[in-house]
Specification:
CATH superfamily of the largest domain: Vaccinia Virus protein VP39
Shape: elongated
CATH class of the largest domain: Alpha Beta
Largest sheet: 7 strands, mixed
Helix content: 55-70%
CATH topology of the largest domain: Rossmann fold
Oligomer: single chain
Number of helices: 12
Amino acid sequence: MQRIIEEFIEKRKKAQSNLELTLKKLSDTFNFTFLRKKKKEVIKGLFLELNNNINELVLSSNKEWDSYSNNHMSGVIQSLNTKILKLEADQTNSKHILNNFLQLEKGLDTLIEKINNINKNDKNENLKNIEDLKKYKEKLSLYQYSDFEQRFRGDENKIREKLEKYYTHFENLNNILDIGCGRGEFLQILKDNEKDSVGIDISESMLKIAKSKDLECFSIDALEYLKGKENNTIGGIFSSQVIEHFTPDYLREVVKESFRVLKPGSIIMLETINPLSLFALSRIFYLDITHQKPLHPEYMRYLLESSGFFDVEIIYSEGDLNDEKLSPIAMNNEIANVFNTNVDKLNNILYSSVEYIVKGIKK
């Protein structure tokens, strides 16, 4: 393809040179003194030559443009095909992993049931075996498996670096609750800044990592925890990629209770995956089968406002997806500008911010 493009460039340059030469001849003709008849014949011939030169230049330029366009589109299609194949491979791999754990859980359930039906005379020993098996099962559960989270959620240091930018919103607050604290990345940021904070999560394996850092965190359901708190007692609420795990009714209750327990002047910040990015949907959201449904940013704005929060805003992440984005054509003409405008539109649909956070203030 590169050789074809170079050939078209040479043809275009030649046509352009011929056009320039004809224009020079035409200009020179008007500067010479000829017999009227002779001059008219010469000028007529030159205008015919000029017309042919212009047609050749337009044709060669169009072919050059087509070759550029075809080459670029071939690259775009090849890039998309590569990404699709990688996505299919990742999906197959994740399905295989999830299926293995489902089968393991099913086998353990069967084993627990069998043990429950034997050794009736040694009830204490039987109960101990059952409890041990339940603990073993919990460690391998899809919902508690920390290695799965580590692999697809990301390295702890990278997650902490990403969450650092949210701390500035909590600089003047204290007594902060992290809902779904996981391994404690945001709790660690708060602790390093001498903020009183507590984290809650239902994943024992995640909390084990957080507790190993001497972070204050508990295994408890979010709604249960909030309902156990008095009005106007919490200084701020933060949550990173948790609310997409909630059912719609449960989420509404969590936001409602959050408003009740927050102190006046405090804030709530809830981060989730951005469904306006097809990349985020295909590569992040649907990778985790525990996600309930994508949450549109305007719905989250409405949910916070209808629950009593003021100055609600949507803050989009600044993740770098430049390596994934479609590339524009490095040409400056009308057709290229239209093409590049459409590439920008596609990039906004495919590769916009992968996450957003909705922020509200209780006044």
